[in-house]
Design brief:
Length: 148
């Protein structure tokens, strides 16, 4: 049993390492070619969102809920952000460099992002949670660890 668990862990570790290399190459290529850059919503003093800064294109957009709001989790090479379905308002954003912990939660459809300030951002109803989690680990460069 222990040998099987070690093998599964090592296989997952290898797969994540490979994804991180691929992600780094893709990010570098996008930056060099300046392709598919979008405008990043930025909150103004009034709390409204504007689009003044450019950044690396979204890698994925996933319909889910966050703090009782339906909307989309956007994953880019530099972080995640949540935009509500109503009024397309930016509700929160976390850059990967500010992530203290990402954890899978719930019955297979939830993620928690813990900021270095200990602020917690939750998403639920995320149908492709494992894909999103793997994508985040691959592009963020964060360490991956099995828990529980």
């Amino acid at each position: 049993h222990l040998d099987e668990q070690v093998l599964k862990y090592k296989t997952a570790e290898w797969a994540i390492a490979r994804l991180q290399v691929e992600a780094r190459h893709r990010t570098e290529a996008l930056q060099k070619e300046d392709l598919n850059f979008k405008q990043k919503p930025k909150k103004t003093e009034s709390g409204d969102s504007t689009t003044n800064e450019s950044y690396v294109a979204d890698l994925g957009q996933y319909y889910c809920s966050s703090h009782n709001h339906r909307g989309d989790l956007h994953v880019s090479a530099d972080g995640v952000r949540y935009i509500s379905a109503v009024r397309k308002r930016l509700l929160w954003e976390v850059r990967f460099e500010d992530v203290k912990l990402i954890q899978k939660v719930g019955a297979g459809e939830g993620l928690i992002f813990v900021h270095t300030t200990d602020e917690v951002f939750r998403v639920s109803g995320l149908k492709r949670r494992n894909e999103v989690f793997t994508q985040i680990i691959g592009y963020s460069g964060l360490r991956w660890q099995v828990s529980g």
